[in-house]
Design a protein that fits this description.
The chain is of the alpha/beta class. It is built from 15 helices and 14 strands. It has helices spanning 20-35, 69-75, 78-88, 93-113, 123-133, 148-151, 155-170, 180-189, 235-246, 263-271, 287-293, 308-314, 345-357, 362-370, 374-390; strands at 2-7, 39-44, 52-54, 57-61, 117-120, 140-144, 174-177, 196-199, 221-226, 252-257, 278-282, 296-298, 320-323, 337-340.
């Protein structure tokens, strides 16, 4: 199959801004589809450089030198421009211009590449614009990665996003959810979906190393936080729980990685007078190196559609502390970690302390993570694509 992926790419692959787990997912999906002998092109809207080939798949960004001007001008429809203005004008002039530019690029790229399948990784913007571009003979698939634009925006903006999501939902024939939890959240906020849909969990790349249960890491008990430095993800709650735990386990250390913007978090650490036990490397290139040094991952997130970071840690045999907002299949039992209320600092601290003395079976933790590997999951995407080719487009 010739597959056009619409999404973002990781910053280390040339993106001008970070876009979290979706970028990692798009990159890895493209890699594994290519490994399965499909032809893949990624149109990355957070990349402005020239077109390049990574391994066997192509990356195209929003650069004028990548724009097939003739095909774009030939296939642009004035009613589509009007539709875009109508749909996005509540978000302001800048957003409208951004979406029109995206439409022009996508129009040219779509008609130049002539894909068998188009897969848009997000409903609000990419999928809706793609629904105006992609013809009825090409299946257009959307993956819903979260509803945080509704649940974590102020009420007026949340309603604007909800309206746009409802439009995109109505235009969707084929929809992938990254968890059953997210399916329920989407149905709660946007409504039920009567098209072709399936839950396909996010996946991880296997590491080669097998974990030994008696493997020693460091003399200190090292906690690791990996994620955005936001209230939703829980970086400040992690620090507070570590401070509380330190009163009971004096050889604790916390390492915080995930972002370049460390100034605010470092000030908080200084104000709390815990610089001796909390360090902030910030954004790192080789996160696996930090996983291999850690004893426990702590990410007390208030909302999580899937929670790839927990599986990445478990790949290294590391137990995890997540929350009741993480889908249960990711952290299914206390043999791999804990799910606790996200705002209960005392309980987070208690499980940190308990983990210090618990006998973990690190190989079993790694085996659980490997059940979510791309080797296990890629065939589900291929089958969903094949099914979409057999279903006549109706919207």
């Amino acid at each position: 199959m010739n597959i056009l992926q619409l999404g973002t790419i990781p910053k280390e692959k040339g993106a001008f801004k970070e876009s979290g787990g979706v970028a990692t997912h798009v990159w890895q999906l493209a890699t594994h589809l290519t490994d399965s002998d499909h032809s893949v092109i990624v149109f990355a809207d957070n990349y402005l450089g020239k077109q390049y080939i990574h391994g066997e798949f192509q990356v195209i960004g929003r650069s004028v030198r990548n724009l097939p001007i003739g095909l774009s001008l030939k296939n642009i429809e004035l009613p589509d421009i009007v539709e875009i203005i109508t749909t996005y004008r509540s978000l302001g002039v800048v957003r409208v211009i951004h979406m029109i530019v995206y439409y022009i690029f996508l129009t040219g790229i779509y008609h130049k590449t002539n894909p068998d399948v188009v897969h848009a990784h997000e409903l609000r913007f990419r999928h809706y614009v793609a629904s105006l571009v992609v013809d009825e003979n090409t299946p257009l698939i959307a993956t819903s990665h979260s509803v945080h634009s509704i649940t974590y925006s102020e009420p007026k903006k949340a309603e604007k996003y909800r309206s746009i999501l409802q439009r995109s939902y109505a235009a969707c024939d084929h929809l992938i959810y990254v968890s059953n939890k997210l399916r329920c959240e989407v149905e709660e906020h946007v409504g039920s979906f009567d098209g072709h849909s399936q839950v396909i969990y996010n996946s991880i790349n296997n590491i080669d190393k097998n974990i030994q249960d008696n493997e020693q890491k460091t003399e200190e008990h090292t906690l690791l936080y990996v994620g955005e430095f936001t209230e939703r993800k829980g970086v400040y709650r992690t620090i507070d729980a570590t401070i509380l735990s330190y009163k009971k386990v004096s050889d604790l250390k916390l390492v915080i990685i995930g972002s370049d913007d460390t100034e605010k978090i470092e000030k908080y650490i200084k104000d709390q007078q815990v610089k001796d036990i909390v360090s902030v490397p910030g954004r790192v290139d080789d996160v696996d190196k930090w996983y291999s040094k850690a004893d426990l991952l702590v990410v007390p997130t208030r909302s999580e559609s899937f929670g790839l970071v927990f599986l990445e840690a478990m790949q290294h045999g590391i137990p995890v502390i997540g929350t009741t907002e993480v889908p249960e299949p990711v952290i299914p039992n206390k043999h791999v970690g804990y799910r606790v209320p996200p705002d209960d600092i005392e309980q987070i601290s208690n499980v940190i302390v308990n983990s210090y003395t618990q006998e973990w079976q690190h190989q079993k933790i790694q085996d659980h993570a490997r059940s979510f590997s791309w080797n296990e999951q890629i065939s589900k995407y291929e089958e969903f694509y094949r099914e979409s080719l057999r279903i006549e487009r109706t919207k």
